């Protein structure tokens, strides 16, 4: 069984059926043998972007969380060992949420599903 962490944009694209999600990412998410995860940090990022007007959604954040639960995508809390790993990462990526996701993926031995190829610089697998 493989473990996959969805990046914030991946979560939104999956929920909306957006064609920007690659075929490989879609197949990976739809494969029932895989364990899927999303960080609570992604919901935090979405909330901030909604508040600042950088993102518009036609649904509420609790509806997105419910879609995750219905689809067996586990919502992962940020734990102290994730923060410890984050503190060890070099600042190769300017987005603090992306660095947090890289720390979670590294700590929890997950492959990150993201369009952001820069995240591979953190010694994690990225689809």
TrEMBL record:
InterPro entries with a match to the protein in the record: PIN-like_dom_sf, PIN_dom, PIN_Sll0205, TA_system_RNase
PIN domain span: 4-120
Cited Gene3D superfamilies: 5'-nuclease
Record Pfam families: PIN (PF01850)
Domain of life: Bacteria
Protein's name in the database: Twitching motility protein PilT
Organism from which the protein derives: Segetibacter aerophilus
Upper taxonomic lineage: Bacteria, Pseudomonadati, Bacteroidota, Chitinophagia, Chitinophagales
